[in-house]
Amino acid sequence: MLLKLKCSSFRVARITWFLVEMKLNDSRNCYRTVQFVTSRIVVIPFYCLLRFASGSIMFSTLEDGKIVKGLAGVPSDGPVLLVGYHMLMGLELSPLVERFLIEKNIMVRGLAHPNLFARKFESSSPEFSFNDWIKVFGGLPVTASNLFKLLSTKSHVLLYPGGAREALHYKGEEYKLFWPNQPEFVRMAARFGATIVPFGVVGEDDIAELVLDYNDLIKIPVVKDFIRDANSNMIRVRDETSGEVGSQELFIPGLLPKIPGRFYYLFGKPIETKGRNEILKDKKVANQLYLQIKSEVERNMAFLIKKREEDPYRSVVDRTLYKAIYATSNEIPAFEP
């Protein structure tokens, strides 16, 4: 699959147009490359490892409420706003972006924390920095103006209301939403008649155990100083008036790897806002829709947590054996929704 994208700010030479080539073979040959017009190929081993370990499976909901395997329930025509839960360290991102590229030929545009675009996140790679990778795969800083631009161009936009607070949650907080008190995105979506698709994703607890969270790390003197120094100049997306989500100290959690389970995604029934712009200007009505979306995300996660117990291929061991026996199969089965 070849996509033509625009990117800037390369560290060595400015290459404005390049090709992104997705090499999507089985787990033994999996790799993703960015092929420059100069034929330079960069391989990302971590992505291959995550793809193999997570064995991601996706479900979506049709207009009649039927849950089906794949993304048939997600509208192909934009603007579409995908709103969901942000797993630990954002591990769900790359499988999601990949699946939309494969199945629907759509580049999902994610709105990310502005600090991910800061210079301190640039790598020592002479060709590509971490910032560039975010841009290649559709990422933009989360601002109202960027959301406005993306919706106005009928894009498929990925939004996490819980932001860094969810992605860097503490022990015992997995699958808990930390959304702002105010419906920040509802009226913007209605202005452009965007379709909102709430989604849930589970599986972080099957990949790793969170052993050191912010409260643990801040007790270690050297680490404490490092975290406070790193956060002193951090861009704040929200303040304390936004609720718990306003508490968004950035840190790197301590994780203990597990024998991998599986990532499960469920995209809920699309919610139309077209023709509802005027009525959603009412704060009470907008808040009701906001709470409906939030509840749908929670229901989707509860559904997946329950149904994954029925998946005979939840473990990476079982999936590997399946691939060894059925080598020609492109997708490993899961539970029946």
TrEMBL record:
Provide the membrane topology annotation.
Answer: Multi-pass membrane protein
Where in or outside the cell? Endoplasmic reticulum membrane
Gene Ontology cellular component?
A: endoplasmic reticulum membrane
InterPro entries tied to this protein: DAGAT
Q: Which GO terms describe its molecular function?
A: diacylglycerol O-acyltransferase activity
**Superkingdom of the source species:** Eukaryota
Q: Does the keyword Metal-binding apply?
A: no
Query: Its principal location?
Result: endoplasmic reticulum
Keywords annotated in UniProt: Acyltransferase, Endoplasmic reticulum, Transferase
For this protein, the record's Pfam families field holds: DAGAT (PF03982)
What GO biological process terms does the UniProt entry carry, in alphabetical order? triglyceride biosynthetic process
Q: What is this enzyme's EC? A: 2.3.1.-
By sequence similarity, the record places it as follows: Belongs to the diacylglycerol acyltransferase family.
Q: What is this protein called?
A: Acyltransferase
Organism for this UniProt entry: Juglans regia (English walnut)
